[in-house]
Amino acid sequence: MAESGVLPTRAILCEVREVTHEFTLPNGRPLRVLENISLTIHSGEVVALLGPSGCGKSTLLRILAGLIRPTHGLTLYHDQALQGLNPGAAIVFQSFALYPWLTVRENVRVVLTAAGLAARAAEEKAERAIRRVGLSGFEGTYPRELSGGMKQRVGMARALSVDPEILFLDEPFSQVDALTAESLRAEIIDLWAAAHGHPASVLMVSHDIAEVVYMADRIVILGANPGCVRTIVENHLPRPRDYRSPEFLHLVDRLHDIITGHELPDQPPPVEPGSITYEPLPPVESAEIVGLLEYLDARRGKEELFRIASDTHREFGHVLNIVEAAELLNFVDTPRRMVVLDTEGQNFLKATPEARKAIWCEQLLKLRLFREAQAILQKEPDHTLDRDHVLEMIVLHMPQENYETIFRTLVRWARFGNLFNYDEATERLMLPLESTP
Ligand code: ADP
Ligand code: MG
Question: How many angstroms does the Cα of residue 215 sit away from the middle of ligand 1?
């Protein structure tokens, strides 16, 4: 093996080179979810992909596993272009993906026999994998009798039973309670660190900063729309890692700053007079925005962004969306990592239901998309507006956004304030009767 200085260069197990991926939407248009991603995974390391929900983490993991062939670029395993599945990888899925009618033993064995192993060999490998994840004694149990954490142990046993060189974990603990997740993380690190070699490397997907600081040697921070590598942070903290040590918390803060510094700008970009920019609407429900305001009110008007996500058991990316939406409507402010209720937000909370609607509409009409839709509705003789017309407005001014999603959000927010309505049958926006001029 080549040496550079005193450190041996570790072999590259798996690699993507300049990968771009587009899905085709039902209307035939391409949706670009990953753009120009290059990434290597070396033998012996734990790599984490960290990013907001929808940024393409699962897609990238599936490309590396050979489940998806990227639109552009190369996927390599041991320097060979991948044809079909990655022969060295096994995946632990978020959803467990267990067969309810099979026992623990059968759930593990089924992937081995599907891989072509003879019954006897499959039996032995399954037993061994079940032992490795601490499920001995539960071989004959059915999934419905197991807790979430135990189910995920079966998922791990399955993945480990094929003795993979690289273990892929796609948000494996998001359906498991916090304490169990903590012990499963430690166990995975123990399995990986055990001397006998496999899995040599781990690639995990997560939106939980503390989780990746606990587990990973390298943290790949992804940006969204389309997914891209923003930066890679090395993590040299000694193992076993302590969630409460100052060094650990310091790295959590640093990652947090990197992520929010980008996702949650302190200042909105300056709007030039007469500019044609529209504000993309984050895909959240009006009720979620009101919920955030009430949550903040119950905490004296402010809370840390991070804390909100863990308190509400929401994906960090989704909480960011809710906060961005509330900020767009001037209900909150976001000085570094804090979310603070604004005067307008306080007024909203104090108001009667009717007055709330009025405040809501007033804020909506500060947004260009609502203002223009409203203006057209008032001008049209029948006070209606075709859906396609609005979609075109969105596509023209925000070509990089998902216009269907923005349209849905537009309709929901407008309905909440009774600003205008949408008739699914005729596919037309319309003014509510009492406000037709
Ligand atoms: P993440 O794992 O980061 O949440 P995903 O990789 O699951 O993100 O998805 C990235 C984007 O690609 C999302 O906008 C998602 O809706 C879209 N997407 C994922 N799979 C498909 C598919 N099979 N067809 C169309 N769009 C998809
Ligand atoms: Mg995912």
Answer: 25
Q: Which residues contact 346 (CB under 8 A, 6 or more apart)?
A: 297, 301
Token pair in block for residue 374:
């409203």
Tokens of 396: 């023209």
Q: Token digits for 320? A: 């960011």
User: Which among 414, 422, 428 is positioned nearest to 367, based on CA atoms?
Assistant: 414
Is the CA virtual torsion 292, 297, 301, 306 positive or negative? negative
Ligand nearest to the CA of 27: 1
Nearest CA to ligand 1 atom 5: 56
Quote the ligand 2 centre to 305 CA distance (angstroms): 21
**Is 286-435 a domain of CATH 3.20.20.190?**
no
Domain boundaries defined on the chain = 12-260, 286-435
Return the ligand 1 atom nearest residue 402 CA. Answer: 14
User: Measured between alpha carbons, how far is 436 from 432 in angstroms, rounded to an integer?
Assistant: 7
Whether the model pTM is above 0.70:
no
Nearest to 156 by CA among 111, 122, 117, 120: 111
For the chain, how many residues are written? 437
**SS3 of 202-224:** EEEEECCHHHHHHHCCEEEEEEC
Q: What is the DSSP letter of 44?
A: T
267-272, long-range: CB within 8 Å, 24+ apart, which pairs?
Answer: none
Helix 368-379 with 387-397: angle, nearest 10 deg: 140
CB within 8 A of 331, min separation 6: which ones? 289, 293, 341, 342, 344, 345, 348, 363
288, 332 Cβ separation under 8 angstroms: no
Compute, in angstroms, the gap from residue 53 CA to the centroid of ligand 1: 9
The CATH class that applies to domain 12-260 reads alpha beta
CA quadruple 117, 122, 126, 128: dihedral sign: negative
* Beta strands 218-223; 201-206: pairing state: unpaired
Using one digit for the tens of pLDDT, what is the confidence trace for 341-369? 999 999 999 999 999 999 999 999 999 89
Considering every ligand atom shown, identify the ligand nearest to the alpha carbon of residue 169 and give its number: 2
92/152 Cα distance (integer angstroms): 8
Q: Each residue of 216-233: pLDDT tens digit?
A: 999 999 988 899 999 999
pLDDT band (50, 70, 90) for residue 291: very high
- Other Cβ atoms within 10 Å of 424 Cβ, number: 8
Helical axes 343-350 vs 353-364, angle rounded to 10°:
150
